[in-house]
Design brief:
The complex is a heterotrimer of chains A (784), B (266) and C (165). By secondary structure, chain B is of the alpha+beta class. Chain B is built from eleven helices and 14 strands. Chain C is α+β, with helices and mostly antiparallel strands and 165 residues long. In chain C, helix 4 packs across helix 6. The chains are: A alpha+beta (784), B alpha+beta (266), C alpha+beta (165).
């Protein structure tokens, strides 16, 4: 079964339905009697609601119900919450303002939901939504986090004076200051990490169905973690108790973090279904997605990096302001703290690190985790400042990095993380070789003759994923545990179902998880089915984010397989009248090692269910479950090199090569891992070159509300990528897996900007490096 | 989209009749702009009169130096027309770079000129080529046809039926697309005739397509990219948005003009 | 209301729809052909691409009434029975999809692209021709690979690749 087991490049089982148009996404679901919803949304960034008049809307053709926040509150539906408690450095808990699923007396960003209209058709629902007359009193808005902290700025929530959610720190400030004072060289930078909109190609959607006879709710939703959705909707939003609420996340068209969170729309659709007596479906259009999906990034940072005379890094000091938008989304508080500042040591020995983070309310869409979540921001700060320091002191960026690499493991950083394994030099060398780094100056000369400016930049990233020991995250403020569950059911004929709490929305779990089983029992892949995404089918699980499905989700399956294997061997030993310790599983058979005595896998399974001849006291059946709680984060790391050519006439950047050398530990399916890296790089290049969410500072209107103004990476913006992997197995989980989902998005932005700034010889360039910005930076550089 | 009433016209006369009966009827050809605008509820015509199936509006005719393109000819058809490719390859090049392949299969030249989107490609070509816009009522010189942002000389019941132009000695088009929408952020069409050079700019002007005097003056001296070295175009009356400042667009006009001339010179 | 009638995947279908009904909604809601997707409002993403009278078009950008009388092929009509179309097979073999949402439009665009380039394709052309199709998962790397491979398979005139595993 080596062809289908661990390490095999198996084509995906799930592809058949997607390539034939048979995928089943939420918008494809039809329930008898189903009607359509449209939300009435605030056109203002900040306003008091004086009055909502629904009379005209109720009389519109096809309208079934028009419901507002007042009724929602009267029915006891709770406010949305942030599930990770962060304390400010003075010990006070974070200042969380109220977020009602439908705004009652104040709207705080353009797109804030005010009412829901349910009608026969989507068109009629929209017609009627326009007829809901909301009287607003507009207030001054603030969209920029730095501006929101200034005195006199518009105030969003009474709970958060000065719009400050928390003022948090980590590390040793005095030690960092002392080292900076004593340094031979200090590099100082102002760094902006641009705000992004995740843009999964499937817009968010929800279908709520209240069954009156059973007093039971079903919610089909675009979620990366349906169980968490059910938990939160039950425990905090009072939609229904868990046993009365089924959440189904069927095929989901991409997530990238944006579908982790529980949004107002699914809560309101469930509630509206009960209120209106019909199943209610809502599907966002793209502009609605731009307005209301949780955005990503949006940091403003001041950083200082200190070097001694031998170019050893002695300290890093970071001061960050993080824009949280109008409300605290589900995991927002953890992103610029424990997913960000704890990674600031990167791949380097840095004796003293200090980071201060201020989280700020503004009149913009809520901001939460987006592919990489905190780690891209940390990597961007560190890899820009390290590259800049190398240029300033006149050494090769590769050599400065090499000199400061961590080389002995485990390594305790000054910012919580304990790196368990890694080999950074191997990745650096592999990337430099693949990129022909040594030959770059020749290529630069050649390009110059053709009138183009060539540049090369690198980035050595580390990330922490497979989040993480539950007790550890609990001590840091998490409201949930971050384990994963699995159940393995061997059927009477030997076919196998694996029920997993992980959710697949592009990651290929139906293939890779099956490979794990195939490897273990020699069962063909098509006899293994992966079941996920339905709280009625699968035991409690935590879902997919933070590159955790491999390291945590598959480890849970591994544990359950251990239990199945133990029982299967006991049954086989009994049937073969051999010692259990002598049984081996090979080629679909359970054999007595070194003999020709064997029982086929299916026959063993059948015996488990006929139960005619089982060992004394053994229960019939063959089904085992496991919960796996990791003992540490995993630490994927690697080196990315980007080479660009800039057209000085237009400022247009072309990526002429992009190299990724990653260490993901053990790999189940290299084809799928490469696909994850490609996609991550595209999003990272998107952030660096193309994507930027823009709000109008005065009005708070979202300027980039469609693909007419928000630049999505297209095929012609990207090259084919040169990717490779090395392997230092992760010692913290039984499979030695590290996680690969976010690396591309984490490692690539600084490599791209380092390359462009090298090409144009001007380091003052902010993301996204659009043609106009590069052209302006070039002009500024030639003026000097 | 708001409610609307769809009609399929069998002839130009039929289309005019249908439009006259409607409260606020609009003609639709490929619909690549109008349908999007209606979907976003930014336009709400009471009636849509579909011109796409009118045979008399279709096709490319090349006769010596004279070119006539029927209004309902799609961008894909213009791009791949063999006679046109021989007579005036710049127009084929322009059409081949409008939108994307799917849009080019629906969008038409008549729709594009009638809509006069300030970032559309065809208006620049029409202006630089001194084209004539033929309607069901009259013939209008391009210079008088494009009157402002999304504004033309067309009356409500007037339908563009064709565009005609005489092939110049040389012509070329080059555009720098908006990174997001891929419409022209700045596009320049240059055409050289014995009596001078015309250079029309799309995507950049704050009042739509216009002719660049600076570029024309330089190219009239010598129809070569080098003639534009050091030429400065004023940023006055150019658009500024999140993608490009007026100053950047002024630069792009010169750069795109150089590339258009280089293409024209082959 | 409009009476619309067209041939969809070889079958004559008709229906009465609001005039404002888009072709994509007619296909998805009236015909139950949910393989064609809607990913944007402004005609950039291409998740809705179908073939109308043999040409790729965006079904979100035209009314069902505009398409009346035409012949439509959707992703559901591409395979020949159990045999995948070579482009479908290549997307699977080369991992040209992840979440699958853009995939139907991507495959329909690819088929059209290959048909329009009987002389073959190169990487640069494929990337340029994908102007109207956005994918957020794959970084396009394997999509480009799949299209190039399918183009070669189809050029060999086999019409069908080996049956996908």
């Amino acid at each position: 079964m080596g062809m289908e087991g661990i390490g095999a490049r198996v084509a995906r089982k799930e592809d058949k339905r997607f390539i034939t148009g048979a995928g089943r996404y939420v918008d494809d679901m039809v329930v008898p009697g189903m009607k359509h919803a449209a939300f009435v949304r605030s056109p203002y960034a900040h306003a008091d609601i004086r009055k909502i008049d629904i009379k005209a809307a109720e009389k519109m053709p096809g309208v079934i119900a028009v419901l507002t926040g007042k009724e929602l509150k009267a029915d006891g539906i709770g406010n949305l919450i942030c599930g990770w408690m962060i304390h400010s450095k003075d010990g006070s808990p974070m200042n969380m303002g109220a977020w009602s699923p439908l705004a009652v007396d104040r709207v705080r960003y353009v797109g804030d939901a005010v009412a829901i209209v349910v009608a026969e058709t989507k068109g009629q629902a929209r017609d009627a939504a326009e007829a809901v007359a909301v009287s607003y009193k507009e207030k001054k808005a603030v969209t920029d986090a730095v501006a929101a902290l200034k005195s006199g700025a518009p105030q969003l929530h009474p709970e958060a004076a000065g719009n400050l959610i928390y003022d948090w720190e980590i590390g040793d400030s005095a030690a960092a200051d002392k080292a900076i004072k004593a340094a031979a060289h200090v590099t100082t930078m102002h760094i902006v990490n641009n705000r992004l909109v995740p843009n999964a190609m499937e817009p968010r959607a929800a279908l709520g169905h209240y069954d009156k006879a059973e007093d039971h709710y079903t919610c089909w939703t675009t979620s990366q973690n349906p169980h968490v959705a059910r938990l939160v909707m039950s425990a905090f939003y009072n939609v229904a108790p868990e046993n009365k609420l089924r959440v189904i996340a069927p095929d989901v068209g991409g997530g990238f973090g944006s579908k982790i969170y529980i949004y107002p729309e699914e809560i309101v659709c469930l509630w509206a279904s009960k209120k209106s007596g019909v199943p209610v479906k809502w599907v966002a259009d793209r502009t609605e997605s731009f307005m209301t999906d949780a955005h990503g990034r949006d940091h403003v940072t001041e950083v200082k990096l200190a070097l001694d005379k031998d170019h050893k890094i002695t300290a890093l000091k970071v001061d960050t302001i993080a824009n949280f938008g109008a409300y605290m989304s589900l995991f927002s508080s953890a992103v610029p703290t424990y997913l960000y500042a704890t990674l600031l040591s990167g791949q380097y020995v840095i004796p003293a690190i200090h980071c201060n983070v201020k989280a700020v309310y503004t009149n913009t869409a809520p901001v939460d985790a987006y592919r990489g979540a905190g780690r891209p921001e940390a990597t961007y700060v560190l890899e820009r400042v390290v590259e800049t320091a190398a240029r300033e002191v006149g050494v090769s960026p590769a050599e400065l990095r090499r000199k400061n690499f961590i080389r002995s493991f485990p390594y305790q950083t000054p910012v919580i993380m304990n790196y368990d394994a890694g080999d950074y030099e191997t990745s650096l060398n592999a990337a430099m070789k693949a990129a022909d780094y040594a030959g770059f100056e020749k290529r630069r000369e050649k390009a110059k003759k053709a009138g183009k400016l060539r540049g090369i930049g690198m980035s050595c990233y580390i990330e922490a994923c497979g989040i993480a020991p539950s007790a550890a995250v609990g001590s840091l403020g998490a409201g949930v545990g971050l384990w994963e569950s699995a159940e393995v059911r061997v059927n009477a004929v030997g076919t196998i179902e694996v029920l997993t709490g992980s959710h697949s929305h592009g990651q290929g779990h139906e293939t890779t998880f099956a490979q794990l089983v195939s490897q273990r029992f020699g069962v063909p892949l098509d006899q293994v089915s992966i079941v996920h995404g339905d709280t009625d089918k699968v035991q409690m699980g935590m879902g997919t984010y933070g590159s955790r499905s491999g390291a945590v989700g598959m480890s849970a399956i591994h544990k359950a397989l251990d239990k199945v294997e133990t029982k299967a061997k006991k049954i086989a030993a009994h049937l073969l009248e051999a010692d259990e310790g002598d049984i081996v599983i090979e080629n679909g058979e359970l054999k007595v090692a070194g003999t020709d005595k064997a029982v086929p896998w299916f026959q063993m399974a059948l015996s488990a269910y006929t139960a005619h001849n089982l060992p004394e006291g053994m229960e019939p059946g063959l089904k085992e479950g496991a919960f796996y709680d990791p003992s540490n984060f995993t630490f994927p790391a690697g080196c990315y090199i980007c080479e660009v050519e800039v057209d000085p006439d237009t400022g247009q950047t072309e990526i002429v090569q992009f190299v990724a050398a990653d260490d993901f530990g053990n790999i189940i399916n290299p084809m799928i891992v490469e696909g994850q890296v490609h996609g991550g790089i595209a999003q990272g290049v998107g952030q660096a070159l193309l994507e930027g969410c823009v709000y109008d500072a005065g009005s708070g209107q979202l300027v980039t509300a469609s693909y007419m103004d928000y630049t999505m990476p297209r095929a012609s913006d990207l090259p084919s990528f040169k990717v490779s992997t090395s392997n230092t197995p992760c010692p913290s989980n039984p499979l030695g897996i590290k996680g690969c989902g976010e690396a591309g998005a984490i490692g690539s932005p600084p490599a791209v900007i380092n390359a462009i700034t090298d090409a144009i010889q001007n380091n003052d360039l902010a993301m996204p490096a659009t043609p106009q910005k590069v052209w302006a930076a070039l002009k500024a550089a030639t003026r000097h | 989209m708001y409610q609307t009433n769809y009609h399929r016209a069998s002839s130009v006369a039929d289309a005019v009749k249908l439009q006259k009966k409607a409260d606020d009827g609009k003609f639709v050809s490929g619909g690549m702009t109008l349908i999007q605008t209606m979907k976003q509820r930014l336009a709400a015509p009471s009636d849509l009169i579909d011109l796409r199936h009118i045979k008399e509006l279709k096709g490319v005719k090349v006769s010596g130096k004279s070119v006539t393109i029927g209004a309902a000819t799609t961008h894909a058809e213009v791009a791949s027309d063999a006679k046109l490719a021989k007579a005036c390859p710049a127009i084929c090049h322009l059409a081949a770079h409008i939108g994307d392949p799917h849009v080019r299969n629906m969008g038409t030249i008549g729709g594009s000129v009638a809509n006069n989107d300030p970032a559309a490609d065809y208006p620049a070509a029409m202006l630089a080529l001194d084209a004539t816009i033929v309607t069901n009522k009259r013939e209008i010189a391009a210079a008088k046809f494009f009157t402002g942002l999304f504004e033309t000389a067309l009356k409500d019941d007037e339908i563009v039926t064709a565009v005609t132009f005489t092939v110049p000695d040389k012509c070329g088009y080059s555009k720098f697309p908006n990174p997001a929408s891929r419409y022209a952020m700045t596009g320049v069409f240059v055409a050289k005739r014995k009596d001078g050079v015309k250079a029309a700019v799309t995507g950049a002007g704050d009042d739509g397509v216009f002719r660049s005097k600076e570029v024309e003056a330089a190219l009239s001296k010598k129809f070569d990219a080098s003639a534009l070295d050091g030429v400065k175009v004023s940023a006055k009356n150019l658009m500024t948005d999140i993608h490009a400042t007026a100053e950047y667009r002024a630069n792009l006009i010169v750069v795109m003009a150089k590339r258009a001339v280089a293409a024209a010179n082959g | 209301m409009s009476e619309v009638s067209m041939v969809v995947n070889g079958r004559r279908v008709s229906g009465t729809v609001e005039d404002r009904t888009l072709l994509v909604h007619f296909l998805r809601e009236n015909q139950g052909l949910t393989g064609t997707h809607v990913g944007c409002d402004t005609s950039q993403c291409g998740a809705c691409v179908v073939h109308m009278d043999g040409k790729a078009v965006k079904s979100c950008s035209m009314l069902a009434a505009q398409a009346s009388g035409s012949e439509i092929v959707t992703i559901e009509g591409l395979a020949n029975g159990a045999d995948l179309h070579p482009v479908q097979a290549a997307f699977k073999e080369h991992h040209g999809l992840q979440c699958g949402f853009c995939t139907p439009g991507m495959i329909m665009a690819a088929v059209d692209m290959i048909n329009r380039h009987p002389g073959g394709l190169d990487e640069k052309t494929v990337r340029a021709e994908l102007e109207g199709n956005i994918c957020r998962c794959t970084g396009y790397h394997n999509i480009v690979k799949a299209i190039l491979a399918a183009s070669q398979t189809m050029a060999k005139g086999k019409g069908k690749t080996k049956k996908a595993a």
